[in-house]
Fold Sodium-dependent bicarbonate transport family permease.
Amino acid sequence: MQSWDLVRANLTSPMVLAFVMGLLATWLRSDLRLPAELYTVLSFYLLFSLGLKGGEELVHTPFLMVWKPALATLGLGVTVPLLAYFLLRRLGKQSVTDAAAIAAHYGSVSVVTFSAAQTMLTMGGFKPEGFLPALVALLEAPAIIVALGLARLRTGRANGEGVREALRDLLTGKSIFALVGGLLIGVICGPEGVKPVTVFFFDPFKGALTLFLLELGMVTARRLRDLRSASRFLWIYAILGPILHGSVGVLLGTSVGLSVGGSAVLGSMAASASYIAAPAAVRVALPDANPGYYLGMSLGITFPFNLTLGIPLYAALSLYLHGGHG
């Protein structure tokens, strides 16, 4: 599949079209709503299913195949927030608190972007490695720790108690807990043990993701309003930053031996910005940071960009680096 075919297939996929439908529903003031309880259930379902499938795959994946991608992921978790903080402070002239808060979001990972990338690459014929959900769990926490540590070093506003509380909430929060819990169950049960529940957790996954993205489209349309007071630099960074981070992720993924699909998904993970775990941690540790910036950028600009154009871009770069072979 060529680059343009990837873009076209991505833009006409049910997931992207459902997201656009959600945007339109809010902009046109439709009374379309999903029950809040359904949104919560879908979030848990997607995370747990991802973990379960990742754990099942991890059982029969040789350690020698995993350790290099795992180290590369940890490297991304440290490098991306440092790079983001430096650019936001030097070029964006943001305060220490806002720069650290935004860096925490861009260093961490959006599980929905990961799910969409993995699904779209598989549909495009570039099936990623099955153990990638384990890397999501690895990437979630380090970036937030690094960014909160930076804020504490520079201002002391993220006091020790606040940082500890934020980290405790992060590690025991429902997103990490559901993902890691599913991963451990998948490892313990193995492929044979998981087989009886695949009809519920694996087969309907794409349908559940499509419904979840419909709701996210409506949430995104509302978040865009929060960016009215943001500087032009933040608008630009919300697109160019992910392209930079995603390119580094694809390069790293290729260098450690991941396939075309695996490298593209790792790039999508590096390019994504968290809007579930990071906001909870930042709200506790950096209460002075402006949520209109970090939430508006991650959910209002970066998420739709990655969903529509970013993922095909990282796939095209990965395909190029692999010599055009899937």
